[in-house]
């Protein structure tokens, strides 16, 4: 827990210091990326105290939601009473509300214990595509909770669901959705809760999040405050670690509001926090690890997999090899091990890929026998000739272009690649800095024994490995 002094204080008339306080009413994500866990982390990062009422416990990881166990509505009511009757909550932030009854219970508590602001993240489906709160809750969201919300933060799918399933594919569509959700919130407000005279004071803000806007190179969110639109635009960070971004954003907004920051600035601060968090974590392997990435790349069209581990202990390398073997075997795709002939032998992998400073290919062939695949990295025609004489099956040629995965590796460019291909008696796979942007320039060399490309960053730094593999593959085969 943070030192108390690290928390933001809300000054009170009496002169006593009190902490800015967000109550999150949401589901638990056992994987720690989204839900209650994300909410508490976001509030802590904003130096705001966070209490938590848990609505549902999910068995969840970075791959998906494996199970959902929702708490009894009266027990959620009891948690709400415990917190709200005792503590001074500034802002309530809501996440997963799995049943209509849960929404009713929450709305009753909000009316009984009013707070300064309510942030509603209408969580319906997780990033992994699993349903967290079904269509039966839609009416409760719209009729009971939205009228109490100061801001509602739907993603594209949720905005679409709130508006009866309309399709949202462009930034203009997002503007339309933000205005429609606002108008319809206001109309319900008018009919259900307060006379029209209150409407000017208590309009509802809508933030339609564009994290999933197809084909966009920016991450654009549309904020509508009832009068003006604000386009919040940030760079789209290429990472698969976007699980929990929505929860983090909404909680950070709540935390800023709790400190007394005005609405638009709170949203801007939250957007900027999510950007920094994504930048910081973009290359982390949290789960969904090599095995899932291997599966996704095969499903996207990869025809051979090489496992390359530069830092793992031998025992860890062996474990990863066994796991990858199981996947590759089930898809009938060969698995090659980088450098470690012992690991390849121990796990009965399909072969090895060796560099110029690793075990000489001739010896590798002796050890592995004729049935295994051997690939050798080559930069020059002489190396290519030697690989053939040593009994290799193919050569990997490069680095063609500069790449982050091998920063000090000198590159040979397209010309160097062509020279080696022409001299090689073995099939060639081009490697080094190749991706969707330049793969066609490589294949256009048109040398018959240039059979394909080997990639790392082009697939694994992307949000969807399968989609990116498919894209690369289509560019590879188009002539
Ligand atoms: N790859 C990304 N790069 C930068 N910002 C992103 C990325 N993905 C999502 N965001 C931002 O994270 C926040 C949550 O958006 P989104 O992913 O659409 O919501 P949800 O997590 O509810 O599906 C938004 O501010 C969105 O712009
Ligand atoms: C318990 C819980 N609450 C909310 C989300 C949504 O988060 P995301 O859409 O970013 O996966 C989630 N996955 N799990
Ligand atoms: Mg998201």
From TrEMBL:
Question: Where would you say this protein principally sits, based on its record?
Answer: plastid
Q: Does the keyword Repeat apply?
A: no
Q: Where is the Pyridoxamine kinase/Phosphomethylpyrimidine kinase domain?
A: 29-290
Where exactly are the transmembrane stretches of this chain?
A: none
Q: Which organism is it from?
A: Dendrobium catenatum
Gene3D superfamilies reported for this sequence: 3.40.1190.20, Aldolase class I
Concerning InterPro entries, the annotation shows: Aldolase_TIM (IPR013785), HMP/HMP-P_kinase_dom (IPR004399), PM/HMP-P_kinase-1 (IPR013749), Ribokinase-like (IPR029056), ThiamineP_synth_sf (IPR036206), ThiamineP_synth_TenI (IPR022998), TMP_synthase (IPR034291)
Q: Which cofactor does it need?
A: Mg(2+)
- NCBIfam families named among the record's database cross-references: HMP-P_kinase (TIGR00097), thiE (TIGR00693)
Query: Which keywords, in A-to-Z order, does the entry hold?
Result: ATP-binding, Chloroplast, Kinase, Magnesium, Metal-binding, Multifunctional enzyme, Nucleotide-binding, Plastid, Thiamine biosynthesis, Transferase, Transit peptide
Family the entry assigns:
Belongs to the thiamine-phosphate synthase family.
Keyword Protease among UniProt keywords = no
In what residue span(s) does the Thiamine phosphate synthase/TenI domain sit?
Answer: 291-459
Question: Per its record, how is this protein called by name?
Answer: Thiamine biosynthetic bifunctional enzyme TH1, chloroplastic
In the record, what lineage is assigned to the organism producing the protein? Eukaryota, Viridiplantae, Streptophyta, Embryophyta, Tracheophyta
Pfam families per the record?
Phos_pyr_kin (PF08543), TMP-TENI (PF02581)
Subcellular localization is given as: Plastid, Chloroplast
């Amino acid at each position: 827990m943070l030192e108390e002094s690290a928390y933001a204080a809300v000054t009170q008339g009496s002169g006593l210091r009190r902490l800015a306080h967000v109550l999150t009413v949401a589901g638990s994500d056992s994987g720690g990326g989204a839900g209650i866990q994300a909410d508490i982390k976001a509030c802590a990062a904003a130096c705001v105290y966070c209490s938590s009422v848990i609505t549902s416990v999910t068995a969840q990881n970075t791959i998906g939601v494996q199970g959902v166990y929702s708490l009894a509505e009266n027990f959620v009511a009891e948690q709400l009473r415990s917190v709200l009757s005792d503590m001074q909550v500034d802002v309530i932030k809501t996440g997963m509300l799995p049943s209509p009854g849960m929404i009713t219970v929450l709305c009753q508590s909000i009316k009984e214990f009013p707070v300064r602001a309510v942030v509603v993240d209408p969580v319906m489906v997780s990033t992994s595509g699993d349903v967290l709160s079904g269509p039966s809750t839609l009416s409760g969201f719209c009729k009971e909770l939205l009228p109490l919300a100061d801001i509602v933060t739907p993603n594209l799918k949720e905005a679409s669901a709130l508006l009866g399933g309309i399709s949202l594919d462009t930034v203009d569509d997002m503007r339309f959705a933000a205005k429609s959700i606002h108008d319809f919130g206001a109309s319900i407000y008018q009919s259900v809760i307060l006379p029209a005279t209150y409407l000017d004071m208590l309009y509802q803000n809508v933030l339609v999040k564009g994290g999933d806007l197809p084909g966009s190179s920016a991450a654009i969110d549309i904020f509508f405050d009832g009068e003006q639109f604000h386009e919040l635009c940030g760079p789209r960070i290429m990472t698969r670690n976007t699980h929990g971004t929505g929860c983090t954003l909404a909680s950070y907004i709540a935390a800023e509001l709790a400190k007394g920051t005005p609405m638009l600035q709170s949203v801007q601060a939250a957007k900027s926090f999510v950007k920094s968090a994504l930048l910081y974590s973009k290359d982390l392997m949290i789960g969904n690890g090599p095995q899932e990435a291997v599966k996704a790349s095969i499903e996207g069209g990869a025809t051979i997999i090489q496992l390359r581990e530069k830092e793992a202990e031998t025992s860890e390398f062996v474990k990863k090899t066994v796991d990858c073997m199981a996947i590759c075997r089930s898809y009938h795709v060969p698995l090659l091990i980088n450098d470690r002939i012992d690991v390849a032998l121990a796990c009965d992998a399909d072969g090895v890929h060796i560099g110029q400073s690793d075990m000489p290919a001739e010896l590798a062939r002796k050890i592995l026998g004729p049935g295994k695949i051997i690939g050798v990295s080559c930069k020059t025609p002489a190396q290519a000739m030697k690989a053939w004489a040593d009994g290799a099956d193919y050569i990997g040629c490069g680095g063609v272009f500069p790449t982050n995965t091998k920063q000090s590796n000198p590159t040979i460019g397209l010309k160097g690649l062509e020279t080696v291909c022409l001299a090689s008696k073995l099939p060639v796979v081009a490697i080094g800095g190749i991706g969707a942007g330049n793969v066609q320039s490589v294949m256009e060399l048109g040398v018959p024994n240039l059979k394909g490309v080997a990639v790392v960053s082009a697939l694994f730094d992307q949000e969807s490995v399968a989609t990116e593999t498919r894209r690369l593959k289509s560019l590879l085969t188009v002539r």
